[in-house]
Amino acid sequence: MTPRSVKVGLVQSSTTEDKAENLAKALTGVRQAARQGAQIICLQELFAGPYFCREEDAALFDLAEPIPGPITQAVSAVAKELGVSVLTSLFERRAPGVYHNTLVTLGPEGQTVGVYRKMHIPDDPLFYEKFYFTPGDLGFQVHETPLAKLGPLVCWDQWYPEGARLTALRGAEILFYPTAIGVQPYEKDEWGQHQLAAWQTIQRAHAIANGVFVVAVNRVGHEGPADGGIDFWGRSFVVDPFGIVLAEAGQGEEVLVCELDLSRIEQVRRWWPFFRDRRIDAYEGLEQRWLEGGKAP
């Protein structure tokens, strides 16, 4: 097998209330990653501001913007200047009253390669996303860049094997999960490490089960009131098709660059031919919410 490599960059940062400052920081991270050789760079989920879904406030819909808009135009210009592809997360205003959590892949000529709208929308304490985001209606996709086929997914999507599988079945070589995940301070001592381990484990499992690389890009820092809010734990990481962690960031601001040998996909799938052995004749019921009585159809 002929080696075919690509370098990916992960930009992990904290945010302030100043959108221009956050965008400038993100673009600085893109430039730094490119200087280190990154050819495909992923920004964290909703990087242009604090994670606003900690509360339900209709005034916060004003944070959204269309596509194309200020964020995509600014990132597009830098992607073209540097000749890199950038996965760019934003709060999309699609129409009056219709908003999405959206991931846009911008190619090395600044062009829009594809638009993915987050499919799975959570509704948990301090993660009130159903108030803001309409579920994605574009399905699971592959965005083809000159160097690799990318599988765009977003945060809560990472807990669903169906999304990873369908994206891989469409030919994705690298699954990207820009993310905003952390722990509430009151539960950090008891549950923080367990939650982090679960987050890492599920994405390593996607890599193994589908024979693909996985890139997870998280934010860092405390957001919200000092006696509440969310501690975003960072720990962005890259996993190969065997589930091996190739690179991992810490809990501070960091630009992580990692080289991927895409021929590893073929190698691992020859050892573990999970796609060959899938029983596609026996999976009836997966499209159902629940199978009453637990009986086979």
Descriptive overview:
This protein is of the alpha/beta class. It has a single domain, classed as Nitrilase/N-carbamoyl-D-aminoacid amidohydrolase, CATH 3.60.110. The chain has five helices and 15 strands. 43% of the residues are buried. The model has no long low-confidence stretch (mean pLDDT 96).
Number of strands: 15
What's the shape? globular
Strand order of the largest sheet: 5-4-3-2-1-15
* Oligomeric grouping of the chains: single chain
Helix percentage = 10-25%
Structural class: alpha/beta
Number of helical segments with 4 or more residues: 5
The CATH architecture is 4-Layer Sandwich
Q: Biggest β-sheet: count, sense, barrel? A: 6 strands, mixed
Q: Spell out the helices and strands N to C.
A: EHEHEEEEEHEEHEEEEEEH
**How many separate domains make up the residues?**
1
Briefly note the CATH topology name. Nitrilase/N-carbamoyl-D-aminoacid amidohydrolase
The termini sit apart by: 42 Å
CATH superfamily: Carbon-nitrogen hydrolase
Kindly estimate the percentage of residues that lie in beta strands according to DSSP. 25-35%
Poorly predicted segments: none
Q: State mean pLDDT (0 to 100 scale).
A: 96
The CATH class designation is Alpha Beta
The gyration radius over C-alpha positions equals: 19 Å
